[in-house]
Amino acid sequence: MPNLESHNRVVSSDDEELILVDADDREIGVVAKAAVHRGRGTLHRAFSVFVFNPAGELLVQQRAMSKRLWPGYWSNTCCSHPRWGEKMDDAVGRRLHQELGLSAELEFLFKFEYQAQYDSQGAEHELCWVYAGRSAERPRANVHEIAAWRYVTQQALCAEIARAPETFTPWFKLEWERLLLAHPQVLGPPRTG
Description:
Layout: H1 4-7, E1 17-21, E2 27-32, H2 33-36, E3 44-52, E4 58-63, E5 74-75, E6 78-80, H3 88-100, E7 105-119, E8 122-134, E9 146-152, H4 154-163, H5 170-182
Parallel strand pairs: 3-8
Antiparallel strand pairs: 1-2, 3-6, 4-5, 4-9, 7-8
């Protein structure tokens, strides 16, 4: 049985170094997380994960209120940054376990660049790799990262985003729209009838 104490440890800080990249995802250096997110943000490598349960529902999380950017907003299952020298597949698995105590078979789908301004002091500017997969395990949220979590159907999520888009992170909305349009195979169990 995994140690719940170690699962709920602090797993990120403003001092951790993020990988700066150019528009072609070539590494050009490292800078502390706090500095990367200042002003309009500096382009850096990141990832987003979408995990579905066996019923095809998406696991979404509400970001902890202690987060500097988008605290309390709903977002996809997990999102973070790889460490310098870390393979992206390893980074994704590491962070999914650190935040939710989950393991999952994940498939890389696409990567894209976006910039989103939170306030006058901070923003995201990421080249984000997007993964999707399935897990039947029960999540155990790390309280330092996640305020709440729940499973939601595709239809219910689309209705919620349409009704209250301001309650969701900007990258989640962009990625969800692309999943719906270009990657329907990851969204749920095959339809019958």
